[in-house]
Write a structure and sequence with these properties.
alpha+beta, 4 domains
Length: about 550
């Protein structure tokens, strides 16, 4: 019985269909899918026309059934069946012994006189019939069990409690180059010599003590191949199953070599690299991975907790949830970004790519993870975003960010039937400062004016610079004119205070225009334009004032 070939499960049905349909015919035949062992019955169940082919729709349906079909470990199933059959045979043997020991019902213990005349043979008694039935059952079970054992490709050895061989399947002698009968009744060293024999004996002892199966792997110098041996304890000895795993070992070796090459290449490319086997709790962090977090190789232990506890608190939950899903259902590779704590106390942005590795049958899924420090990229992107949305002199939001913020608060006000105010501020005597003391002095005045305006308003309001000595403030969630006039008054008072330029002090005269959403406009452009009109009315009135926009003429207070 050969084990079904494993199919790459991460591919979709459509991808598998296109791989098999290399000629682009739009259908696959049974010959195309011969590598998908175990798929035949799904193929035949859908091939109702007996045409010997499936189109993509039929293939997808069959693929769903194939993927949902339970996968059976042949060796484990065989081991379970062996133990079950041995118990059944033991019960039958016991009943047979009891039947042989019991005297026929109604039989006399006195000797009978010899008969001189031939007589017809008496029909068999009930115990005799029962005995023959039991013998037939025992032979049938033996025949059935031997048929199963002779059909498998693994070495199967039954050993008694005294350590003697009681059974070998037909393939065992072929592997040891002797006949079957030569081994019955001999010790296990006849099949497992030297160090391997010691490993088998130790496994037998452990299995008997623990009443549980024991497995180990070894390389046979005699056969030049790898074997996986499992020992299953029974009531009167043990069953030993030895399978050739050389092909699997070759695949594992090639995979390990590929990972080693990848590790070397990743370190040359300044990529951090680590491997993790969740079921075993085994993890390996490459020296480059540790270096990117500020540690020498010996400073950071290879424990998964070292990675988990370095996750930024804001990233920890969603990162661990995604990793837990990947452990439960290993599928396609995935990428994510998160922050890890650095030795210097700060955090570094990490771009990580997680790759699920093939299972080795001994501990569930494992992962290879590449790790790239993208902190500088993140910082540069944040800087570019800041530069694109803020005034370089004052650090206040520029026109584009003011518009974006205003549209957001106005949308909220529309839903809640609220109001938003826009204040347009201008420094009347600023040109005289520039002409008298120079542009550097004027820049200092603008920087200080920006701070004073921002401190005069609430945290939820936004102050921006439109250019020159013109500023705009967006006040969200105002309840009425009282909130607006209080904010304007505080801005006038703080801007009217002298500005220090070294030993000199200068004064500028602020003027403020105000417009209200939705009364004075339904867009930020309209509101700024109308506030600008009101500001010029305040300037014409002598400055140092604020005016509210009115369609029939601005009024000041």
């Amino acid at each position: 019985m050969t084990k079904p070939k494993q199919v790459i499960t991460s591919q979709s049905a459509g991808s598998v269909f296109r791989i098999l349909d290399a000629a682009g015919r739009g259908q696959v035949t049974k010959a195309d899918i011969k590598a998908l062992t175990g798929f035949d019955r799904f193929f035949e169940s859908l091939d109702s026309s007996q045409a010997g082919k499936l189109d993509e729709v039929q293939f997808r349906k069959a693929w769903r059934q194939y993927r949902l079909a339970p996968e059976i470990d042949d060796r484990q199933r065989l081991a379970n069946e062996l133990i079950l059959r041995q118990k059944e045979i033991a019960i039958l043997k016991k009943r047979l012994r009891q039947a042989n020991a019991a005297p026929p019902r109604g039989a006399s213990t006195a000797p009978r006189a010899a008969k001189t005349t031939p007589a017809r043979q008496a029909p068999p008694t009930e115990p005799a019939r029962r005995e023959r039935l039991l013998r037939r059952q025992v032979e049938a079970e033996k025949s059935r069990l031997e048929g199963v054992l002779e059909s498998v490709s693994d070495v199967v050895v039954d050993v008694s409690s005294s350590g003697r061989i009681t059974y070998l399947n037909r393939l065992a002698p072929q592997r040891v180059k002797r006949t079957k009968d030569e081994f019955i009744g001999r010790e296990l060293t006849a099949i497992f010599p030297g160090e391997v024999g010691q490993m088998v004996q130790e496994s037998l002892s452990r299995a008997a003590r623990g009443h549980a199966p024991v497995r180990f792997e070894y390389f046979s110098k005699v056969h030049s191949c790898w074997f996986e041996t499992r020992v299953f304890p029974t009531d009167d000895g043990a069953v030993i199953i030895s399978a050739d795993i050389s092909r699997r070992k070759q695949v594992e070796r090639r995979l390990r070599e590929a990972l080693d090459r990848f590790r070397t290449a990743s370190e040359m490319a300044m990529l951090g690299f680590w491997e993790w086997q969740p079921a075993k709790g085994a993890v390996y962090f490459s020296p480059e991975w540790k270096k990117q977090l500020g540690y020498a190789d010996a400073e950071l232990p290879n424990r998964i907790e070292e990675w988990k506890r370095r996750l930024h608190p804001d990233d920890r939950k969603h990162v661990l949830q995604q990793v837990a899903r990947a452990v439960r259902q290993p599928a396609a590779d995935f990428e994510m970004e998160y922050r890890l704590a650095h030795k210097d106390g700060g955090y570094r942005w990490i771009s990580a790519r997680w790759m699920a590795l093939p299972e080795d049958g001994n501990g569930g899924p494992s992962f290879a993870v590449t790790h790239l420090d993208v902190t500088s990229v993140k910082e540069e992107a944040a800087h570019l975003d800041y530069v694109a949305s803020h005034d370089s002199l004052t650090g206040l939001p520029n026109r584009s960010l003011v518009h974006e913020f205003a549209e957001h608060v106005m949308s909220s006000a529309r839903r809640q039937h609220g109001k938003v105010a826009v204040l347009f501020l201008d420094l009347d005597r600023f040109k005289a400062v520039n002409d008298t003391y120079g542009h550097k002095a004027g820049d200092r005045v603008l920087q200080e004016a920006a701070q004073r305006i921002a401190h005069s308003l609430r945290a939820e309001d936004l102050v921006g610079r439109l250019g020159g000595d013109e500023f705009v403030a967006v006040l969200s969630e105002i309840s009425g004119f009282k909130d607006v006039t209080r904010a304007a008054t505080e801005c006038l008072e703080t801007l009217s205070q002298p500005f220090a330029l070294g030993k000199r002090k200068v004064k500028v005269l602020p003027s403020i225009g105000i417009s209200i959403f939705p009364d004075d406009g339904d867009s930020i452009e309209t509101l700024i334009h109308n506030a600008d009109i009101a500001m010029y009315e305040a300037k014409r009135s002598g400055g140092g004032k604020f005016c509210l926009f009115a369609r029939d003429g601005a009024t000041h207070t």
